[in-house]
Structures are given as structure tokens and as C-alpha cells.
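tool_call predict_complex ligand=GN1
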Amino acid sequence: MSNIIRMELELRNIVSRFQIVGEIESVRPLGEGFINDTFLVKTKQEQTSDYLLQRKNKSIFKDVPGMMQNILTVTSHLKEKIVNNGGDPEREAMTVVLSDEGLPYFTDSKNDFWTLCLFIKDNISYEAADSPELAYAGGKGIGKFQAMLADLKKPLTDILPGFHNIRFRFEQWDEVLDKNPVNRKKDLQEEISWIEERREEMLEFWQLVEEGIIPTRVTHNDTKINNILFDKDGNDLCVIDLDTVLNSTVLNDYGDAMRSYTNTGLEDDENLDNVSMNMELFKAYTKGYLQETISFLTEKELEYLAFSAKYITFEQVLRFLMDYIDGDNYYKIKSPQHNLIRTHAQYKLLRSMEDQFEQMNKEVMECCKELSA
Ligand code: GN1
Ligand code: MG
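tool_result ok
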């Protein structure tokens, strides 16, 4: 039996441990996530849904039951809102499928955690925002997501302590640099200075979050464009990949989206000339986002909105470089230099944001004025 057939049989076995409707036709790898392994489960019958199967990365997610409980808390809150608004709760929010034992995951003999959710049909997903219209729809999508969750008071379990917390990231950074386990530090003096030069500025921002001057709410924490589905008309449909829903500042969601949507190149572009921040896309996303969120965001949040784009892009430069120095233990890589290539591309994006920062702030203020007129 070939390995591929054996693997598909194993996967079918796992799927059959969940409460699915219909018979399995095929289970095939899907997408290019850096963290989990994802498979599309097709069912034979026309009228039954297909499913998404995931093996969660257990070295990153140490508390998969906690994570899945967070996802259930968030999706049931969203579904209630969607139903009240006359929407379709199975298309506009993720639906977790329970295992035979009634749990939101299944654990196999290797102690791997598997999860299953409904596949949302007729959606379109993008790896890059190629038009202002799409950026605008993406902004509305995350804005609505945050708005619907603004009154969710039940605290979520902190399954990734310090996730977008730059103080924590600097602690990890200092440790990795100290250990220098694969002796890569010697060739990276310039890259390391990019991080050190911005240490104070980034910590100052995070202190506002620590002191509650910038509030903590329900946040997605991975708002790049491929984590939102659009419909055929280009409208936002559903926010997906809820692994990292946490209580944090909503600025991180906006900032991470800016990192992803406004980049004229790839996250790991080898040609740095391709990489820059596109102001038109920045404006369009900001407009969509603020239309949905201006009613509850505080003055302080608005003041730091543009800054959050720099903050998250900086964090990503740090995380890619740190993983490279650490010997590539966190992100999946496609070549030995991949994390360094990512570092350079994200740094180029950060520089472009820094160059345009004044204008970014102006656009946010303009947008606020228009919306409150
Ligand atoms: C990871 O696996 P993926 O692509 O959803 C990472 C994000 C990073 C992103 C970089 C849990 O997300 O924080 O921003 O890669 N997720 C985790 O593209 O670390
Ligand atoms: Mg993710």
C-alpha cells in the first residue's frame, strides 16, 4: 500500500470519529498554514456539507481543549447575533463539529489533537488584497467580528500567554540571543539592530495596554487576508481560523490586517522592490473597519490605530528573525533561509510604514471625521 493511500485511510478513520453527516468521499491536504495541518473532507452526497479537518500543532498549542472551548464560546455568541440579524449562522460563522464523545476535538493514539468544522461552500479566499474594494470588505469583516463580540463578557482562556505582547517577545528574544543555539548571530548584526532600535517605542505602546489605558477586548489575533472568506460578490462572509481568539487589544487585529492587506509584495518576497505599504489599500481597509467599530472604540484606541500597523509588523520581524536565530523551530520553512527572507521582507514593509506614518495618521483622522459628521 502506498504511503498516500495509507495516510488517507488513517485520515478517514479520524474523520469517522466525529459526528458527521454523509459518507466520506475523499480527504486531501489543503492550504499552506505555517502552524497546523489542514485537510478538506469531501462527502459523497450533494446535499451534505464538506468539512475541514485539522491536526493542531501541539508544540505551539499546549491547551487544545482550552482553545476549542474559546472557539465554541466565540462562535456561539456570533451565531446568536447572526440569527438575530437574519443572517445564516452556518455561513457567517465557523461551525465546530463534535466528536462521538461530544468533545470539540478527537485525540488519537499519538496524542495528536484533531478538530473538524463545516466547510463553507461558495466562498472566495485571497492571498493578497488586489483592490481597495476587497480591502474595504475585509475591514468591514473584522470590524463586524469585533463589534458582535464587544459584549461577550465571559473571559477567554489565555491559551497563548504573551502572544502579541512585545514585552514577552523581548524576553524570548533576549533568551534566544543569549543562547545563540546554531551560531547564526554573528552574521546578523544589522538585523539585530533593527529590533533593538525600536525596543523602547514598542514597549511604551504595550505599557498602555498593560495599564488598561488601551482596553482589552475579544480579538482574533491572526487577521491576515486569507483568514477571512468573501462571497462571490466580494462582500465579507466569514472570519475563519479562530485558533488564536484571545482577550487582548483590538488594535492588534487592525494592525495585523494592515501588515497583510497593504503589502504590495509577499510576506516572504525575495525581491524587496516588490514590498511596500499601499496607502489606497490602507485607506479602504480603515474605512470599512471604522464604519463597524467607531461606535465603541475609545479615543486612545483611535489615537494608536495607525501605530498598531507598525507594532504588529515589527513584532513579525522580531518573531521571524528570532526563529531563524533559534534554528527554525516555530514556523514551517520551505528553505534554510526562509525565516531570514521573511525577516527582510517584513522589515522592508515596516520601513515603508514608518516613511508614511504621518499620512497614515491623517487618513485615520479624516476617516473618523467623515464618520462622525
Ligand atoms: C502564523 O499558521 P498561520 O499562517 O495561521 C502565526 C501568526 C503569524 C503568521 C505569519 C499561532 O499563522 O501569528 O502572524 O503565521 N500563528 C501562530 O504569517 O503563531
Ligand atoms: Mg492562524
